[in-house]
Amino acid sequence: MSNVQTILIKSSDPDIAKLASVALNDAEDYRLVFCEDDRTAIRRMDEVQANLLLYDHLGPVPDHQSALMHCRLARSTCARIILFDLAHEAEGIALSERAAAFLFLKKPLDQAQLRVAAKRALEQVELSRRHRMLSRELKLSLDDDIFMRTADSSVQGGYSQFERLVYVSSKMADLVNEARIAAKTNMPVLIQGDTGTGKELLARAIHFNSTRRNSPMHVQNCGGIADVVLQSELFGHLRGAFPGAISDRLGLFRAADGGTIFLDEVSETSPQFQVALLRFLQEGEVKPLGSDQMLHSDVRIIAASNKSIEKMVEQGSFRRDLFYRLRGFQLHVPALAERPEDIPFLTSFFVEKYAGVVGRRVLGVTSEALRYLEAYRYPGNVRELETEVQRMVAVAEQGGYIALRHLSDRISRTPIKEEGAGGFVPMGDTLKDMVESLEKAILVQALDRSHWNQSKVAQDLGLSRVGLANKIKRYELRRERR
Ligand SMILES: Nc1ncnc2c1ncn2[C@@H]1O[C@H](COP(=O)(O)OP(=O)(O)OP(=O)(O)O)[C@@H](O)[C@H]1O
Ligand SMILES: [Mg+2]
Questions:
Q1: Residue predicted with more confidence, 481 or 31
Q2: Residue from 154, 160, 201, 206 to probe ligand 1 pocket by mutation (most atoms less than 8 Å from CB)
């Protein structure tokens, strides 16, 4: 980054322009840009990447036409100094409050004073820039720390990870593949799935695998929040836009410029909000409440819902055009009960995590306890499993295993099926014989379970119909009729 700082001077008064150029032109490495009116200043502000706005207040200008207010809302990192004379004192002071100015100076100006004020303002700009950068780096390095630790254990644990998402099931693997593709684009993503399935974790993983990873991801929950509050949180507002709006607010869309916004529970939004969100998705434009000025923002939207948006569209309670826009990529996170293969791996992942947190040594989970954990249906999905493991780790004996007696009643009461490949005892002396006896037993069980629906069995076991028929012939399997 160059050290040249750009100062934008908005004044139609030639004396001010002259004084500023003398005061600011000598020692420091400043680039001075002069504009006579607000409109030009608004246009030039971004073009020249102004770091300081010197704003000569010569009389009332409506907020939405004021370069000062524009700076406050759309280029908040640029410091603002206001100049006014005695005749405009009250107005000028109020304005400097409203525009969150660094300082106001009364005219006639003193060269030395202006020089010092500008220098201090620019130092402050630089300090807050560094502060933002360091906070971001700190956050990234904390996250890295978590990823490193989990990435290590994933090698031992035999599971895959997408950032902090742990899985082995093919359903999750397919989802992660799609999510990786989505991450490389700028398109909106709609993530659906039951509560606790990991939608937010997936959204974070997408953000961290996108080119926006060095900018923030902001999370906004759209449920249980008044519409006007939600709109002002996201789009910002001008002071006085609604009762209680006592000062201007920037809004997440502007604050997250260059980053990602995660809209949780997007199903809960009002029709007005849906219109505003659609406008952003179509034009990239946001309009703060109470303002008629359109601002631009480069933000990637990831939305999540645990209600079916399709159904809501059918029922007319969600805009169809918004749904089409939101689902640039449409991802569905399967319920945990639909991917029971993940349960043992998630369990040991959480055991390790919570044993580490409370500094306890837990050897693992007994296979009996695991069978109950695998059989339970988890209405609260991964979150429920995680809380269960957290509790089990706390009650398990130091240095011992987590056993059946440590499980919650609702889980240890789950009926257990006594079947499954685990129950087979292979017959025969050679490996070939044993494998064949196992194959035969699996076929018998699958055929019985489906009442000899051979297409289903072939599909379930990944065989062709002909392949299955050959095996039935070879093992001389017959349907037993009662
Ligand atoms: N695959 C996973 N691997 C590791 N942890 C997971 C996984 N899925 C979910 N979790 C954990 O489960 C909890 C719930 O996940 P998350 O908040 O992402 O779910 P959600 O779908 O957003 O839930 P809700 O709909 O209730 O908001 C979190 O603590 C998260 O860390
Ligand atoms: Mg969530």
A1: 31
A2: 201
Looking at ligand 1, which atom is closest to the CA of residue 193? 21
Q: Is 334 touching ligand 1 by the criterion CB < 6 Å?
A: no
Q: pLDDT for 134-150, tens place per residue?
A: 776 566 555 544 444 44
Partner residues linked to 80 by β-bridges: 53
pLDDT at 145: 47
Cβ 307 under 6 angstroms from ligand 1: no
Q: Is 197 close to ligand 1, i.e. is its CB under 6 Å away?
A: yes
Q: What is residue 156's predicted lDDT score, i.e. its pLDDT?
A: 44
Domains of the chain as residue ranges with CATH: 5-128 (3.40.50.2300), 175-333 (3.40.50.300), 337-412 (1.10.8.60), 425-474 (1.10.10)
**Dihedral sign of CA atoms 266, 270, 272, 273 in order:** negative
Nearest CA to ligand 1 atom 30: 198
Tell whether omega for the bond before 379 is within 30 degrees of 0, i.e. cis. Answer: no
- The rounded distance, in Å, linking the Cα atoms of 470 and 473 is 5
The rounded distance, in Å, linking the Cα atoms of 108 and 321 is 57
Contact, 217 vs 244, CB < 8 A? no
What does pLDDT average to over the chain? 88
* Whether the predicted model's global pTM rises above the 0.70 cut: no
Q: Tell me the CA–centroid distance for residue 177 and ligand 1, in Å.
A: 18
Residue 84 to residue 109: CA distance in whole angstroms: 9
pLDDT of residue 275 exceeding 80 = yes
Q: Which two tokens mark 212?
A: 């926006």
Judge if the beta carbon of residue 306 lies within 6 A of ligand 1: yes
Contact 52, 79 (CB under 8 A): yes
